[in-house]
Amino acid sequence: MSQTPLASIEDVFAAGGPIARAHPAYESRPGQIQMAQLIERGFLEGAHTIVEAGTGVGKSLAYLVPALRSGKKVVVSTATIALQEQLVRKDIPLVQKALGVNARVELLKGRNHYLCRAKLDRMRADRLIAQSASMEAIWAWSERTQSGDRGELAFSPPGAEWELLDADGDDCVGELCDRFRDCYFFARRDAARYADLIVVNHALFFLDLVTGGALLPTYDFAILDEAHQCERWAAAALTATLSPATLGRLTRRLHRLYHVPAGHDAELQEAMRSLLAALARVPGERYPLAANDRAFDALQGLQQALFGLENWLFANWQAALRRPPANPAEAEPRRDLAMRGILAHVATIERTSLPEDEAITWVERGEGEGLYEVNSAPFDVAGYLRQNLFGRTTSVVLTSATIAAGKSFQFLKESLGVDEAQEHIAPSPFDYRAQARLYVAPPDCNPKDARFPARVAPIVEECLEITKGRAFVLFTSYARLREVYAEVRERVAFPVKLQGELSRAQLLDWFRRTPNAVLFATATFWEGIDVAGDQLSCVIIDRLPFPSPGDPLVAARLAALEGAGRPAFEEFMIPSAIVRLKQGFGRLIRTKSDRGSVVILDGRATSMRYGATILAALPPARRARDLDELRAFFERA
């Protein structure tokens, strides 16, 4: 990477400086400069850095400038592929132009985002024509694509069809494959080896960590944007899952390679049916496996069926091949991959018997009637990340608009295993007291009360009338969403849609295009949503978003704190709620010209002692004491 470093970060971000010259609409912001200075110091001194940078600070440029000035190999990880692409297409080119840096940049996605040429060749050899319109479109695209990235497709391919063509590691024999030299995934991975800046998402970053660096090249520094999601993605990478979906993928892969006797299929299917029946005996969307004695016997039955399949494959893998591979050396590695898939399911079953201080195992209801999955995760991810990420990487940057609980990062540090770090809360460029109002419903609005939906319905109606729609009405559960929606739907005089009527992307597109729109949705719309201007002027939140104490992972965290003699509610539940609520403001105020209100329907925010702690940690919007004050605020707009 060739560059001519400027004397200081201040020079880069100064009015009339290189960033301003590259971006005519740029405004110098103190918070952005402070953040960039701290990150650069962390790179130079080998220190980890934690920065909360709210909307408007410009955190992407604040970490990209020191990354591209460092002369080191840097990985930037974001929450979503959409954010990856924004960095690569917009933000990084701007910084390169401003700094005059000729850096090599690679965007790398997970393996299953890429087309596998070998699978495509085999499918075409088996089928003279595509079996569906979508597969025909994929075949046509495969003739012209240069990247093999399914993101180029104008549609989302059906999962079952894309599975037949993806570059998933469970099907890959690497250098032994005839198409290795022109493999799309390995081409991207090799390019990343020589890149100065690699942009990935959290799913890939933490999966690479768990697999010991099998997906990414060795890097000097790591920048984790949207860091409030890191614990979830790290836990997902470390979680073993057994479900009809995972078993189905395993058996379909086996059938593509081998003539599997029908008896083994029948045995596995019957064992899975018995397991699902046992799992359904305990009600709820999520519950600890230990609460279901019947499930352990059913798991043992499934394990025995898997052992039978393993023994058959070991004895018959050569004779049962559907076709000899083009390269005979592929045969044994493909057998080993198939065997690894079987043993992974066996290992997951074995993990379900580990003591609670080693693993948390729970059952989760999946999509579709009667579908469940069994998950097993480490007791907490902090120890793993402390050793494998923060203990081995020279400098890790954690940044997000919402990672501090009040003025403290202790909650984040304990969740992720960070012992020492530079810390900073970048000042916001927004005047929240002038731009935003916070209204809290009266104390008698308690979500635990059965009368809550009827009590808050008139408040929702009046807020929507005051703001002329232009609102998200967000709930922590589908049940409460449906209850309140049923109360107000016929009395809302604006275009309304309910989550589930369209896909997430379609709902957002509808909301952006429809004047005075109102969207009733769940917490999945609390983050990662960008609605420009006054199209979104109100965010209504049904309750203080405490994690559910019935969630097995949450219960384990609470038990660990209580076992250590620490106040679990204060140290876990309250910080979790604060971080979540702050994301509501992040949806609302995104520029200096935005105006809007956050409405909390949970009266406990003022009636309970902990409510004052939570509200004090939110952005400093002025409180509206009643709906008349809220009306006056919008009438002045």
Keywords:
47% helix, seven-stranded parallel beta sheet, 637 residues, 18 strands, Rossmann fold, alpha/beta, globular, single chain
Please tell me about this protein's structure:
By secondary structure, the chain is an alpha/beta fold. It folds into four domains: about 10-105 and about 195-235 and about 380-425, Rossmann fold, CATH 3.40.50.300; about 110-185, no CATH class; about 245-370, no CATH class; about 430-635, 3-Layer(aba) Sandwich (Rossmann fold), CATH 3.40.50.300. It is built from 26 helices and 18 strands. The strands form three sheets. It has a seven-stranded parallel β-sheet, sandwiched between helices. Strands 14-15-13-16-17-12-18 form a seven-stranded parallel β-sheet, sandwiched between helices. A four-stranded antiparallel β-sheet has the order 6-9-8-7, with helices on both faces. A hairpin with a 6-residue loop joins strand 8 (about 360-365) and strand 9. The longest helix is centred in the middle third of the chain and has 24 residues, at about 295-315. It is globular and about 80 Å long. The two termini are about 50 Å apart. The mean pLDDT is about 90.
